[in-house]
Specification:
The protein has about 350 residues and is of the alpha+beta class. It is built from 12 helices and 7 strands. Strands 1, 2, 3, 4, 5, 6 and 7 form a 7-stranded mixed beta sheet that branches. Helix 5 runs antiparallel to helix 7 and helix 7 packs parallel to helix 9. The radius of gyration is 24 Å and the shape is elongated.
């Protein structure tokens, strides 16, 4: 059956076939995998192997040769290739990965493919017969690297540091800041869930995609409550659900990996935050001194646009007692979170 999607893919193949610099065109992603998740809304993930990558990364003119373009993003680097994310007329989204043909030659020579190809790929064009020599896909997910103890503890401490701000901003009726802090906590909760899924050898996907398939059903029901914004922030204990979900995942991971438990002061903080839900007040500064005995020094340097300029890392908290504070990296820094990879929605 010929559909709009198949007609569009045929048009891309026709375009690539007429480009002398393109040696191969390979489809990856959900449309090439065998996990049954592809649907009419699925994007196209296409890999262009070319002798002239720069003509696709430094120029945008080639896009309109395929079809009318609605919107596209600038070129971004992703490992050994450049990516071009484009939405064509009709809302058809294509993620092009631009690779030098030498990379394809290396994949054939060493008979090794990355995780993306191992999940499934489909050769659409193979002018030189190279792509047909690639090793077959296993159609299985690869094992993700587990965090180091330092990475694990940093995620825990950052989560609870963010959580400690929520009652104050709720009391001030500063709901925009509440939601800003809340989403930072959700990102850290997602990271903890990804680690938990990896520890259980589940098929963990990026940015929480198909999460229902890789976390336990009971945990998914809790996540459903976490994402329910229709309820007032503190009604019926709803707002503290992310904390409970985080602790649940944390406890499971500590059982699996033998990581150190939360600091005693952080556990007191959890209990006190639950009490804040009822009292809605931070006027008693003695409570803060009891639950957070570690002093937090101002960060060195100019104020950052993301989150508070007083946010501190585990190392800076330690340094606060013995020496000058260490400036914290931004939340999304790849150095700060080496196992977190920024990915476009697919």
């Amino acid at each position: 059956m010929v559909t709009k999607d198949t007609e569009f893919l045929t048009e891309i193949i026709r375009w690539a076939d007429g480009r002398p610099d393109i040696s191969a065109l390979v489809m990856t992603g959900s449309r090439a995998q065998r996990d049954g998740t592809v649907d009419d809304l699925s994007d196209y993930d296409l890999e262009i192997f070319t002798s002239d990558p720069e003509s696709y990364t430094s120029s945008d003119a080639w896009m309109s040769d395929i079809a009318s373009v609605w919107v596209y993003l600038p070129t971004t680097r992703n490992g050994l290739c450049e990516t071009r994310l484009i939405i064509f007329e009709g809302g058809i989204k294509v993620d092009f990965s631009i690779r030098a043909v030498e990379l394809l030659q290396d994949m054939v020579r060493f008979q090794r493919v990355d995780e993306l190809y191992d999940r499934g790929y489909r050769v659409l064009i193979d002018k030189k017969g190279l792509a047909s020599q690639l090793p077959p896909s296993s159609y299985k997910s690869s094992v993700r690297r587990l965090p180091t103890e330092a990475e694990f503890e940093a995620a825990i401490e950052e989560f609870w540091f963010e959580a400690s701000h929520i009652p104050k901003y709720l009391q001030r009726d500063d709901l925009w800041v509440v939601k800003f802090r809340d989403w930072t906590m959700k990102e850290l909760l997602l990271q903890m869930l990804e680690w938990r899924g990896s520890a259980a050898n589940r098929d963990v996907r990026h940015i929480g995609m198909r999460m229902k398939n890789w976390i336990p059903p009971a945990e998914w029901r809790r996540i459903d409550e976490v994402l329910d914004d229709s309820m007032p922030p503190i009604a019926g204990g709803h707002y503290w659900q992310p904390y409970r979900s985080f602790e649940k995942s944390l406890g499971k991971l500590q059982t699996n990996w033998g990581m150190r438990t939360l600091q005693t002061s952080m556990r007191r903080l959890v209990a006190t935050l639950s009490d804040f839900e009822t009292r809605h007040s931070l006027t008693d500064r003695r409570v803060l001194r009891q639950i957070a005995p570690i002093r937090v020094a101002p960060a060195i340097g100019p104020r950052r646009s993301r989150a508070s300029h007083r946010r501190c890392s585990r190392d800076s908290l330690k340094a606060n007692r013995t020496g000058p504070a260490i400036r914290r990296r931004p939340l999304h820094s790849t150095k700060r979170h080496p196992i977190r990879r920024e990915a476009a929605g697919r």
